[in-house]
Specification:
The protein has 415 residues and is an alpha/beta fold. The protein has 15 helices and 14 strands. Helix content is 42%, strand content 19%.
Length: 415
């Protein structure tokens, strides 16, 4: 039950100090200037009038048009008028050491993941409501899909990589079939550890024969995480498989449990293999766009996930000709990337409804020792298309210092 939140931890992110009865309190994991900027934009979008105190963590509440809606939707605030936010409870459903990898976000070690708290805030800032549809044409690890689903917002995710599509589906659809997943756990184990009953059938053959696609996807993802652990960290495949199977089941159960406890009306999610340069959508059909274009000029996604892509039957050489940013060398590679992104941005303009918002998280990559001014290119081209830049927020990033040190959160509005 929600009352157990106080017992969950001693973790600094879950502390429950005395809550201000007449104000707003930021979550403890809010640490950066860009987060404070997003928190203030979120307040305005959700109709909250406020003043920042000297401590910068506690805000004085002047007026809130709908404090209950704010409490249920906010990404950056622990409490409003003494009541804990839904997000405070959500982030405690976490099986990892990272406060940002709660629920199913942690599944599969994909490079360049979104910060989920940022995505939740952007959905609020863009004023997307339950029943609206957000598009992520580079769905990647599925962060946009999970956060939209939690807020009751429908999500369409597209990616040219079947690995991205698989992990995004598993993160958002497994809670629908968790009972069936658990029922197969014992039987699957026979094929990880061959017995007299399973000696003629491999684990992969068994998984491919599972009838329900959602259950099949889940077990494929368990196998891929174990393959990744073995390839990247030299871990024992069998031990990794069983460990991740238990963790993934527990995380999906957490997701289902918190949705029930908070009475969340989950959004519909549709994830499919597709190309951002030719979106399978009608014109002016989505209410918002949140995405991060691939950093493939400087980050080789195919080499990084070669083991998983090969398992899924992807021809790596063919993929290099299809993935944005992977074709060509030197200046030609940059030119082809820019031309492909122009096409993708035109497609975003085509499918977005007039007056609606598109948030693009992008940074200047370093390629062959030279900085590629991707941010300026994006702003200039988007504005030529007919978008108006409303915000340009600097965001520090971690884990990609050999590629980039900073991203920009660009918020556009379609004229």
């Amino acid at each position: 039950m929600l009352e157990k939140a106080e017992e969950l931890g001693t973790s600094w992110a879950y502390k429950q100090e005395k809550l201000p009865l007449d104000g707003l309190l930021l979550l403890d994991n809010v640490q950066f200037i860009y987060e404070l900027a997003l928190a203030q934009l979120e307040l305005r979008a959700l109709g909250v009038n406020y003043e920042i105190t000297n401590g910068l963590r506690e805000f004085k509440l002047i007026q809130a048009n709908d404090p209950e809606t704010f409490r249920r939707r906010t990404a950056y605030f622990k409490s409003i008028s003494g009541k804990l936010s839904d997000y405070f409870y959500i982030i405690q459903k976490n099986r990892t050491r990272s406060v940002n990898q709660y629920l199913t976000h942690w599944i599969y070690p994909y490079k360049g993941k979104f910060h989920p708290q940022m995505i939740r805030a952007l959905l609020n800032i863009m004023k997307l409501k339950p029943g609206d549809t957000v598009l992520d044409p580079f769905i990647g690890s599925g962060t946009t899909a999970v956060e939209a689903q939690l807020l009751g917002i429908n999500c369409i995710g597209v990616d040219i990589s079947p690995l991205c599509v698989l992990q995004s589906r598993v993160k958002t659809e497994s809670l629908e079939v968790i009972d069936e997943i658990v029922k197969l756990k014992q039987e699957v184990s026979y094929f990880v550890e061959p017995t007299l009953f399973s000696i003629n059938q491999s684990l992969q053959d068994y998984i491919c024969a599972i009838r329900d696609e959602r259950v099949r996807n889940f077990y494929q993802m368990v196998q891929l995480v174990a393959i990744s652990d073995a390839a990247r960290r030299k871990k024992d495949f069998k031990k990794s498989f069983f460990r991740n199977l238990e963790l993934m089941i527990a995380s999906v159960k957490d997701y289902k449990e918190i949705a029930q406890e908070l009475r969340l009306e989950l959004g519909d999610v549709r994830i499919e293999v597709g190309d951002a340069r030719n979106l399978p959508l009608e014109g002016e059909s989505v209410d918002g766009i949140i995405t991060s274009p691939p950093y493939s000029i400087a980050l080789d996604y195919i080499a990084n996930d070669a083991h998983a892509l090969e398992y899924l039957g992807v021809n790596l050489q063919k993929a290099r000709e299809e993935f944005i940013g992977m074709r060509g060398r030197g200046k030609m590679r940059v030119h082809l990337y820019n031309e492909d992104m122009k096409t993708a941005y035109r497609e975003m303009l085509r499918v977005l409804k007039p007056g609606k918002f598109a948030a693009i998280v992008i940074g200047n990559a370093t390629y062959q020792g030279r900085e590629i001014r991707t941010v300026k290119f994006t702003i200039d081209y988007m504005e030529r298309l007919g978008f108006h830049l409303l915000r340009n927020i600097d965001k520090i990033i971690f884990g990609l210092y050999n590629v980039m040190q900073k991203e920009n959160i660009l918020i556009f509005r379609k004229a």
